[in-house]
Amino acid sequence: MDPHHAPVDELDFPLEGVRVLDLSRVFAGPLCGQVLADFGADVVKVEHPVRGDDTRDWGMRIGKTETTYYNSMNRNKRSLTLDLQSPEGLDIIHRMLPQFDVVLHNFKSGGAEKLGLGYAQLKAIKPDLIYCAISGYNSSGPEAARPGYDLVIQGETGLMAINGEADQPPLKFGVAAVDMMTGMYAAQAVLAALFRRERTGRGRLIEMALYDCGIMITSYYGLDAMLLGHDPQRYGNAHPSIVPYGMFEAADGPLIIAVGTNAQFDKFCRQVVMRPDIVEDPRYATNVERAKNRLTLLPMVTALIREFPRDLLLQRLAACGIPCGKVLGLHEALTSQRTRQGGLLQDMPHPAAGATSVFAPPYRLDGQRLPIRHAPPTLGEGTRDLLRGLLGLTDEHLEALRAQGVLTLPDE
C-alpha cells in the first residue's frame, strides 16, 4: 500500500456527509469548494451548460473540457450543468437545496438576488443554510458593484508595492495570491460556521471580500508601514532585518542561504566561506550591526559565494545547521524526489487525455495524506447521476431539459 495514501474506504473524512453547492467560478470560490471537498464534503459544482467555468478556457488544454487552470481548483468535485437564468434551472436548484448544507458563490453585487439565489431567498427554503458569498469589495460599501480581479486588488492593497527589487517597478505575485488566500479564508469561515451549526442548529451568512483579504496578506509589512508612516523599503529576495538572508549565486547555480543567528554567522564565515576575519570585524559581529552595514557586507558575501560550487556550499551549510536549499525550476521541483516521495502529484486517468497530473491535498490526518477521491470533472460529468439521485428525474425528463438547453448530459 502507498504509505502516503490509505484506501478511501478506510479513511474517516471530517466532512463526510456534508453537501456543498458550489455556484462559484474562476479561483477564490472554487478553491474554497476544493478545500471542503478534500475534507470529504460532497461538492457539486454548478456550471453553465455550454462554456462551464471560465477557467475551462484558461491555461493549457487537457482533453475537451478541462485545462491546467481549471484542474488546479476543482478536484474531488462533481460537475452539474444548469442554466441558472432559466426558470427550469432555478427550479432544480431550489428543489435540491434542502439536501445541501453550504452554498458558495461569487456573483457580482445583486446578481444572486436577481437570479433568485440570494441569501434571504435560499434561507426561506433551507433555514439552517450556511451561505458564503465572495466579492471583490465590501458588499455594503460604495464599491460593492465593482468586479474583483486579483491583479487589480494586488495593486490597490499595496501588495505589488512590497514585492520585487527596490530599483524595479512594483511587481505582482507569481500566482493569484489574493484569490488564493480569499479561498482559504472562506473555507475557514465555512468550517467555523459548520462547527457552530452543530451546536446551535443555526445557519450563517458569510461574506468575503478579496480586498479585505489582500490587506490581510500585507501582514507584518503592513504594520511596518503604519509604524513608519510610509512604505517600507523593498528588498527583493533579501530580508529587511536579517543579513545575510536570501538568494545567492554559487559558481554553478542559485541557492538560498538564511543565516538567522550570530552563532550561524560565525560558522558561515569560518566553515562555509572560510573567512573568519569577517565575523571578527565588529561591523558584522551581531545581526543588528550586519543589517546596519549590509551595503558593505552583502557585496563581499555575494562575491565569496560565487567562488564555490553550489553542492559544496549546501554540504557545508547543512553541516553547520544553517538553513539552505537549491533554487529549482518549477518543473524540476514538481518532478523532484521530494515531491514524488510526498505523494504531492498523482497521475489520474482521463477519458480523453489518457492520464493527467493532479495535485494531491496538502493535508495529512492521522499520518496519511488525504487522497484524491475524484479527478477534476469533465463538464457536466455528474449531471445525470446527480439529478437522478437527488431529485429522481427520469431519463425522459433529463432529455427534455437537454433539448431546452437547460443542461448537458454526459454520454453513457
UniProtKB/TrEMBL annotation:
Signal peptide (from-to): none
One family name in Pfam for this protein: CoA_transf_3
Highest taxon above the source species: Bacteria
A GO term, aspect molecular function: CoA-transferase activity
Protein name per UniProt: CoA transferase
Species of the source: Bordetella genomosp. 7
Keyword Metal-binding: no
Gene3D superfamilies: Crotonobetainyl-coa:carnitine coa-transferase, domain 1 (3.40.50.10540), formyl-coa transferase, domain 3 (3.30.1540.10)
PANTHER family on file: SUCCINATE--HYDROXYMETHYLGLUTARATE COA-TRANSFERASE
Entry keyword annotation includes Transferase: yes
Lineage, uppermost ranks: Bacteria, Pseudomonadati, Pseudomonadota, Betaproteobacteria, Burkholderiales
